Amino acid sequence: MALSDSVTTCLSQPVHYAICKLGFEKKDTYDINNILSENSEVCWQAVTEHMCYLESDQSVDYIESIRSLGPVCESVNLYFKSLTKEQFVIQYASWFHWTNCTEVFLEVFDVLQCTQGTEVALGLMKLTSCLERALGDVYLLKGNDCPFLLRDLLASEQLANVFGQAVMNVLRVFIGSPYGLNLRNVLWHGFASPQEIPAKYCAMLLFLTAGLGQLLQTYLLQTERVLVHRPYVTFISLEELDAFPDLNNETLSMAEELVKLSGFVLKIMLPFWIAALTAFKQSRYADSVILLLPQLEVGLRLLFTTTNKCPNRLLTAESSSLYTTFDEMLAKYLDNEEVNQLPIVLEEPAMASILKDFLWDFLNHQEGPRIRDRLSHGEISLETFPREVANQIVGFAITFLCRFSDEDMLSLKEHMAIKPLMNCASCYRSRFHPISQLKKQVLECMKSIHLWPELPTVPEEQVQTIKGLEGNAESNTLVLMISEIISQLQPYMPQNCCSSDDPINSVLTERLLMELCDARICTLYSPRPVLEVVVVLRKISAQCHQVSQQVIAGAGLRYSQWVSRTLRSRQRHNYLRMLNSFKFLSPVLRLILLLITLELVSVNSVCQKNPFDYQQYLKFLKSVLQYTENLVTYTSPEKNKWDETMELTNKALIKIRKISDRKLMLMHLA
Description:
Blueprint: H1 3-6, H2 13-20, H3 44-48, H4 62-82, H5 85-92, H6 102-112, H7 117-139, H8 150-154, H9 157-163, H10 165-174, H11 183-188, H12 199-223, H13 249-261, H14 270-281, H15 285-307, H16 326-329, H17 342-345, H18 349-364, H19 371-376, H20 387-403, H21 410-413, H22 419-426, H23 434-449, H24 460-464, H25 472-489, H26 503-507, H27 510-517, H28 528-563, H29 569-607, H30 611-634, H31 642-662
C-alpha cells in the first residue's frame, strides 16, 4: 500500500484544471456592487450575464462560464470576509429561512473566515446537502415525486418555472452537472483533497442560496403559495445498528495514531481523517460521518484499483464515464465481467464479509439506514444526528485502519482499546439484507402467535351448551395432517427436537425457529433467483403476522362482548367457531413459519437447479402465499369466515404434504 504515500491528487487532469485553475485565469477585479443592490439583494441579471453558451445549440458552455464567473466568485468571497458575523446575520439570515437550515448556512459563513481546507470542504458538503433538500421542497410546489438525483432536480422544468432557466444554469455550473465544477459529487465521493477546493466557490454558493431565497419570496407572494418542508427521516430501532462497542477517548486516540500509519489512508486526505475523529470527540456526529464516508470510499477505491490493476480509476471520471463508487467496488464482477479481486485480497473471510455486509447494511439496503444517501441529499437533520450511528461508522473505519497497518503495528492492533472492535468485525452479520429481514419477520410473527394461549376464552362447559356447533372432527383431521408433515420434515431439522407424543408442540416452537434463524447464511452476492424467492417468503410471513394480529384483536373484542352479553345468537356461534379454529390455525401458521426458515437454508441450492425445478418451486411458494392472503381475508373483522378458513386450510395442507413428500422444496438440504 505504498501507493497511499505517492498519490498527489485524485482529480483527473481535466477536472483538476476546471476546479483549481480555470476560475483563476481571468485576473480582472470585479466590483461587488455590480451584482449586489443597496439593500443587499442579489442582482441576478448581472450574475447571469456572465454565463456563456455554445453557438451550435445554445447549451451552456461550462468551460467559458467557469472562467467568466471566476472573478465574480472571488469578489463575493472578499465581500463576505469583509463582513462581521453580526452584519451577515442582519443582512442575509432571513434569506436562508426557505432552506429550513438557516444555522447551517450561518456556519458556512464562519468557515469562510478561516483558511482550513477541511472546514471549507465540510461546509460545502453540508451546504449542497441542505440546498438540494430545499430545492426539492420548491419542486413539490409544482410537481410530484421529487427527482432523486441533484442533476435531474436542477434540470427540471419545475424549478426553471420558479427561479428562471438562466438562474438554474448558473447553479449547474457549480453543482449537479458532470460538465461543470460538479463540487457536490467530487466532495461526497472523496476525490478532492482539502487544498483542492477553492473557498471562493463555497462563498459563491452561499451567495446564490441567499439570492434563491429572494426570488422564492417574490414567487410565493405572487402565487399566494406556501412552501412546505418535508419532515426529516429519523432513525428508529437504533439498537439494530449496534455492531461495535461505544468508542471512548482512549480508542479514539489510538485511532488518531493508526490514521497516520495505515496504508488505507491517502496521505493527501489525512486532514479529513483527523478532522472526522476530532468532530466525533466534540460530539459533532453529523460532521464526523460527513467527513468520514468519502474517505472510506476513497480508501476502498485505492484498494479496488490496486488489486484489480486499474490505477487510472482512482481518479475522477470524466463527464463521459462513471465514477468508481461503492456499488462497483462491492460487486462480485467488474464491468468487463472479470471477478472483482477486492474481497479476495482481503484474505480473511471475516474482513470480506464486513466489507460487503456492513457497508451494504449502512449505505445501500433499502430497509437499512442508507446513511450516505440521506446525509448527502439532506434527508436527515444535521443537528440531531445520533451518536449511535456515528459510533458504528467510526468503529468500522478503525477496523480497516488496523487491517491495513504495518506488521510492526501489532501492539496497537492487539491493544485492549482496539481488539474489541476487531472481534466485533469478525462476527458481523448483515442486519438489513432481505434474508436477515425475513428472519426478523419470522421471529416477530412467532412471538405474536405465542400470545394466543393467553387470550381470554369462553369456559369449555359454556361451549358444550351451544347446540349446532360443529367442526371438532375436521379440526382434529387438520391437526393430524400437520403432524404428518412435521414427520416428513424431521430429517431436515436439529436432532432430538421432536416428541412422538406431541410433535406439534415439541417442534413448532419459538426456540426451534430461533435456532434455525441463528444459522449463518451467506448473503454475499445473492443471485436474483434467491432474492425473488425471499421476496415471496417475506410476503408469506407478513400475511401470517397479519392473520395473528387479526385473531388477537378479534378474540379480545368478541370475548368482551360475550361477557357483556351483547352478542346475537349468530355472532355467538361465529365466535365459538373462531375459538374452535385456534386448534388448527395456530399450528398451521407455525408450520408455515418453520417451512420458511427451512427454505432459507435450502434456497441457494434449489435456485441453482435447472430453470424448470426453480419455476416449480416458485409456483408452489406462490400458492402458499395465495393461501395466506385468503386467510387474511377470511379472518378479518369484516368477514369472520371460520368454516371457510377450515376448508381453505385443508386444501393447503394437502398440497404442502404432497410437495414436502416429493422433497421438491427441500432439495439438497441434507
